[in-house]
Amino acid sequence: xxxxxxxxxxxxxxxxxxxxxxxxxxxxxxxxxxxxxxxxxxxxxxxxxxxxxxxxxxxxxxxxxxxxxxxxxxxxxxxxxxxxxxxxxxxxxxxxxxxxxxxxxxxxxxxxxxxxxxxxxxxxxxxxxxxxxxxxxxxxxxxxxxxxxxxxxxxxxxxxxxxxxxxxxxxxxxxxxxxxxxxxxxxxxxxxxxxxxxxxxxxxxxxxxxxxxxxxxxxxxxxxxxxxxxxxxxxxxxxxxxxxxxxxx
Length: 249
Prior knowledge:
By secondary structure, the chain is of the alpha+beta class. It folds into three domains: 17-74, Orthogonal Bundle (Arc Repressor Mutant, subunit A); 83-132 and 206-248, Alpha-Beta Plaits (2-Layer Sandwich); 134-203, YebC, transcriptional regulation domain (Alpha-Beta Plaits, 2-Layer Sandwich).
């Protein structure tokens, strides 16, 4: 999990600048809209919407933005009809990529994804070409400075989590997808605060990437995540520290 988590931390650091923050807000608004459209506008009865709202609040999104996104999803306000499409491909070093998008124009999105891949040494694969290298897991991120590791581990396991690991300054609580929302609710009841939670595509095995290939891969991941329609990019890359340090600078 090292490379996967390190890249996630780099993304969180980069999200501090205005351009990345704007892209983050766009992605969160789309997710809220789609969640409300698929499951209704009441987060008490729509776990996906509740998660999307929680993540938006964690990113300090204004309440008015959240409310408007919900209303666009429920049809109370005019809005765009987004479609969920996933793409699979390869990056430098043979790294597997799983790319999740929300789009109102699939032809535009696949063209942009293919262009980014080709430009940075990757390629677009067929459906199912790399998905088998990942498994869907719930992941809940908690600030390690706020909680005792042993006590938090006990609380997470009692809540139904599968595992908990420390990755630098963050505890990552992992769940199966069916238990994801229940574990969140149980931890909330104990007063535990999350930094973020998501349904992730977790790699079953990592591929080490270093040197020039790692630098090209970092540029590819950034190019994909900069695309408006891309929500998440998952990879099985264990990227060397030098490449990550340059990406963070």
